[in-house]
């Protein structure tokens, strides 16, 4: 897959078949659109172009609101490559760009830059200033500018009962199992291991403290989770605590991972997580002995769960 970071970077493409959108999560509904895009490209002997944006339009248009996304840019690129896109264009979204009206977007981007021959969009797609453009606009513009428009019917997308909002809501509540089902893959999180208070090792459960670099990445609700951890391209079963660590009077929200049966120094390492399921709420125990007993229970539960789960390939 070729990746471009501005619409001006892409050159001539054979019989371009184009789609556009934010594609946050690259979930099952998005993959319905991508599958049709690829089918159309194969049928006409063309190549696929997917246009998306960074920052996410909401970050630019509503800067005072905290915006969270399902994917970092690196995650989205990897998912779209797996989906089989030929050309990915990640165009900078600015206030100036947001002022393009629907006709200007069609003329300047779809026609002049991409030389679009076929456009494939979801049934509720809107574009241009104030989201004024719709499928009806595109159907009118198509014959004028020489491209065909295909809209994915509502029933073909809705039957999967998935949306980025529904997935974000599930992760907000810690229901990563539902999120994984809707996404079609295990929800990812990655970051750098930093030094913590090192209290875990005193009770036999050393943890890696994770610092997430992308501030907009959605982190699941506080609680204890069974996860897979990727360390130098090897997957390890692990349990993770997200929260305030009330038993040890924590004052900051932390993300701590205990990697099962792993020995070694992870400080400074980049590691990736894949969430499997939520084990329980975070709670305050009477003392460290009570916490330690619960952690042994969590460990056994994690092993039982991950032993019976398919190891994530993504």
Overview of this protein structure:
There is one protein chain. With about 325 residues, the chain is of the alpha/beta class. The chain has two domains: about 1-160, Rossmann fold; about 175-305, Beta Barrel (Elongation Factor Tu (Ef-tu), domain 3). The chain has helices at about 30-45, 55-60, 75-85, 95-100, 100-115, 135-145, 155-160, 165-170, 175-185, 290-305, and strands at about 1-5, 15-20, 45-55, 85-90, 120, 150, 190-195, 210, 225-230, 235-245, 255-260, 270-280. It has a six-stranded parallel sheet with strand order 1-4-3-2-5-6, sandwiched between helices. α5 (about 100-115) packs across α6 (about 135-145) and α8 packs antiparallel against α9.
- From the spread of the alpha carbons, the general shape counts as elongated
The average pLDDT value, as a whole number, equals 89
Task: Please write the CATH class name of the largest domain.
Answer: Alpha Beta
Number of helices: 10
User: What would you give as the CATH superfamily of the largest domain?
Assistant: HUPs
| Spatial strand arrangement across the major sheet | 1-4-3-2-5-6
> How far from one another are the termini?
17 Å
Helix content: 25-40%
What is the count of structural domains?
2
SSE string, helix = H, strand = E?
EEHEHHEHHEHEHHHEEEEEEH
Architecture of the largest domain, CATH level 2? Answer: 3-Layer(aba) Sandwich
Number of strands: 12
Radius of gyration: 22 Å
Structural class estimated from helices and strands:
alpha/beta
By CATH, the topology of the largest domain is Rossmann fold
Biggest beta-sheet profile = 6 strands, parallel
Low-confidence sequence ranges: none
């Amino acid at each position: 897959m070729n990746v471009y970071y501005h619409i001006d970077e892409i050159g001539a493409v054979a019989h371009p078949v184009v789609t556009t959108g934010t594609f946050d999560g690259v979930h099952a509904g998005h993959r319905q659109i991508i599958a049709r895009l690829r089918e159309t490209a194969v049928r006409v002997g063309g190549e696929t172009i997917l246009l998306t944006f960074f920052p996410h339009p909401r970050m630019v248009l509503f800067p005072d609101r905290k915006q969270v996304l399902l994917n970092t840019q690196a995650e989205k690129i990897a998912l779209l490559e797996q989906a089989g896109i030929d050309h990915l264009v990640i165009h900078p979204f600015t206030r100036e760009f947001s002022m393009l009206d629907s006709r200007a977007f069609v003329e300047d981007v779809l026609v002049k830059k991409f030389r679009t021959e076929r456009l494939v969009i979801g049934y509720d797609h809107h574009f241009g200033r104030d989201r004024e453009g719709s499928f009806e606009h595109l159907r009118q513009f198509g014959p004028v500018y020489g491209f065909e428009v295909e809209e994915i019917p509502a029933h073909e997308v809705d039957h999967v009962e998935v949306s980025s909002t529904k997935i974000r809501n599930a992760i907000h509540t810690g229901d990563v199992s539902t999120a994984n089902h809707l996404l079609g893959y295990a929800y990812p999180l990655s970051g750098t291991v930093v030094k913590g208070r090192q209290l875990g090792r005193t009770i036999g459960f050393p943890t890696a403290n994770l610092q997430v670099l992308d501030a907009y990445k959605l982190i699941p609700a506080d609680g204890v989770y069974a996860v897979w951890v990727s360390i130098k391209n090897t997957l390890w079963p692990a349990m993770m605590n997200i929260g305030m660590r009330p038993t040890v009077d924590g004052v900051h929200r932390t993300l701590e991972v205990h990697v099962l049966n792993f020995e070694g120094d992870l400080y400074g390492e980049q590691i990736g997580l894949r969430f499997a399921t939520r084990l329980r709420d975070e709670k305050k125990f009477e003392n460290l002995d009570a916490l330690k007993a619960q952690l042994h229970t969590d460990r056994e539960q994690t092993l039982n769960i991950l032993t019976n789960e398919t190891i994530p390939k993504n």
